[in-house]
Amino acid sequence: MQYLPGVAGVEAGPKYLAVREALRRRASALPEHTLLPPEPVLCAEYGVSRITLRRAVDGLVADGHLVREQGRGTFVSRPGIRHEYRESFVHRIAGFHSVMTEQGAQVGTTVLSQKVVPAAPAIAAELSIATADDVVELVRLRSVDGLPNHVVRSFLAADRYPKAASEDFGHGSLYEFLRREYQADLAHARLVVDVGTAAADEAEVLDVITGSPLLVVRTTVRDSAGHPLVHSFSRLRPDVSQVEFEVSVGGR
């Protein structure tokens, strides 16, 4: 058994989140089963109380980065990707809620914002509408098995989908709503994957520290004629998310 080496700097933000992130980074660089120093040592290194330290460690245990053994201590573990968002846009366009539910996960949705706003130039371009045309902006926090997974912002032309401004999206799928209420033909999807960092408001709801890396997935869904129907961008915690692409050739 060995102890963790030197202390990494604790970043700005809520103390327990900063300590948790610093411990996560240190643990990720060490072999599995490495023994952490005792609580008093860690408290002194990070300059926090036992309550703050335990809250940080509890989060890492829940995420699978650490494991406690009664009478022995806390050890480094290796979490698997437990919440895999495996969507194939070749055979169907189902959306996050449908895919994760089919995998047996408990999907939670909190609507953070739902309103009609003028389309910003980038959104207008994706939806092939004029800048400042009304769009429904829907912002949702999605969780899987109780753990925050991502924040998704979706935009739809308000004159085409007026019901989207008042529909209860606390449950179910936006794509299924479009099919049910408007017989929408969701035929094609274009995805752009990038990396970003968590702003303060995102960090709070995703339970990470400000500036943490996020996986950014931008999606524009079109009908069979190529007309854009909905544009979304999701900002996902990379430690609990995975996006899979599937490509087929010649209709196979």
Brief descriptors of the model:
UTRA, 252 residues, 2 domains, DNA-binding, alpha+beta, DNA binding, Arc Repressor Mutant, subunit A, 26% helix, 7 helices, Bact_HTH_transcr_reg, single chain, 8 strands, two-stranded antiparallel sheet, elongated, disordered N terminus, Chorismate lyase, WH_DNA-bd_sf
The CATH architecture of the largest domain:
3-Layer(aba) Sandwich
The best one-word shape is elongated
Strand adjacency order, main sheet: 3-4-5-8-7-6
Which oligomeric state applies?
single chain
Overall mean confidence score, pLDDT: 83
Biggest sheet layout:
6 strands, antiparallel
Structural class: alpha+beta
* Alpha carbon gap, first and last residue: 52 Å
- Uncertain spans, ≥5 residues at pLDDT below 50? 1-13, 81-91
Kindly provide the name of the CATH class of the largest domain.
Answer: Alpha Beta
CATH fold-level label of the largest domain: Chorismate lyase
Q: Summarize the amount of helix as a percent range.
A: 25-40%
| Total of DSSP H or I helical runs spanning 4+ residues | 7
CATH superfamily of the largest domain: Chorismate lyase-like
Percentage of residues in strands: 25-35%
Number of domains: 2
Element-level helix/strand string = HHHEEHEHEEHEHEE
Number of strands: 8
Radius of gyration: 21 Å
Overview of this structure, please?
This protein is of the alpha+beta class and 252 residues long. It folds into two domains: 15-76, Winged helix-like DNA-binding domain superfamily/Winged helix DNA-binding domain (Arc Repressor Mutant, subunit A, Orthogonal Bundle), CATH 1.10.10.10; 87-242, Chorismate lyase-like (Chorismate lyase, 3-Layer(aba) Sandwich). Helices cover 26% and strands 28% of the residues. It is built from seven helices and eight strands. The chain has helices spanning 15-28, 39-46, 50-63, 96-102, 121-127, 174-182, 200-206; strands spanning 66-69, 73-76, 107-118, 134-144, 147-157, 188-197, 213-222, 228-236. Helix 1 (15-28) crosses helix 3 (50-63). It is elongated and about 65 Å long. 32% of the residues are buried. Mean pLDDT is 83; it is low at 1-13 and 81-91.
